[in-house]
Write a structure and sequence with these properties.
By secondary structure, this protein is of the alpha/beta class. The protein has a single domain, classed as Rossmann fold. It has seven helices and eleven strands. An eight-stranded mixed sheet has the order 6-7-5-4-8-9-11-10, sandwiched between helices. A three-stranded antiparallel sheet has the order 1-2-3, with no helix packed on it. Strand 4, helix 2 and strand 5 form a beta-alpha-beta unit. Helix 1 crosses helix 2 and helix 6 crosses helix 7. The protein starts with a strand and ends with a strand.
Length: 226
């Protein structure tokens, strides 16, 4: 499948797939979207509603490493230890990683080596990226996740339901529900009614929230029962 690096509205880049007319991040701003959906509505919300010093995060769709990188930057600011697991069935090739400008676009150009380290560290192994950030990358499909009560927070950043509807089903969200601890939270950029209904059917309490630039709404789901 053809792949192109394109610039988004906030100056950060993303990977565009012309055959699907889909991209890894919003064309309205890759960094803006990640900060709003996953940091503001996910990470910061969870920390405001839970007293915790060690946080366990699962990312569905490690992809470009943008969400992991921005979360690492936040861990430095918050003095928070984070164990981060990124699941990705199709890792990016090294030549594409080198074309991603996320350190510059997020005003963290001095962290470029750290961004590259996220991609260069071994798969299937827990890697120390910084004093407060540990990364485990898992090369597998989302329906192969079998963790139970392991994560506090899930960043659900799969390709959209328009092109991969099989990733947005009750079956997948049931796996996510099982993987979360009680009071665990899942956030995603998606807001489709079918996605919301699949989350509810899986046991989540679901809330519509204001979306990032260029998108009216997004979803946050909370596991309130074991």
């Amino acid at each position: 499948m053809e792949r192109k690096i394109i610039k988004t509205d906030d100056g950060s880049v993303t990977i565009h797939l012309p055959e699907w007319n889909e991209q890894y991040h919003s064309k309205h701003g890759a960094v803006q979207e990640a900060r709003h959906v996953f940091l503001k509505m996910g990470l910061h919300y969870f920390l405001e509603t839970n007293v915790i010093k060690d946080l366990s995060i699962l990312e569905i769709g490690f992809g470009t490493g943008l969400n992991a990188f921005l979360t690492l930057l936040e861990s430095d600011k918050l003095n928070l230890k984070i164990n981060y697991t990124g699941v990705e069935a199709y890792p990016l090739p090294a030549d594409e990683v080198k074309m991603l400008n996320y350190p510059e676009a997020s005003q963290a150009e001095d962290k470029k080596d750290i961004f590259l380290k996220l991609h260069e560290c071994n798969w299937e192994k827990k890697c120390m990226i910084s004093d407060d950030f540990y990364l485990t990358k898992m090369n597998k499909k989302f329906d192969e996740i079998d963790d139970a009560r392991l994560y506090d927070l899930i960043y659900f950043d799969a390709f959209g339901a328009r092109v991969q509807p099989e990733l947005w089903t009750e079956e997948i969200f049931s796996l996510m529900y099982r993987a979360l601890k009680r009071n665990g939270t899942l956030v995603t950029y998606a807001a489709k009614g079918s996605v919301r209904r699949a989350m509810i059917a899986s046991g989540f309490e679901v809330q519509k929230l204001p979306g990032p630039p260029g998108k009216r709404e997004m979803l946050r789901a909370v596991k309130n029962k074991d």
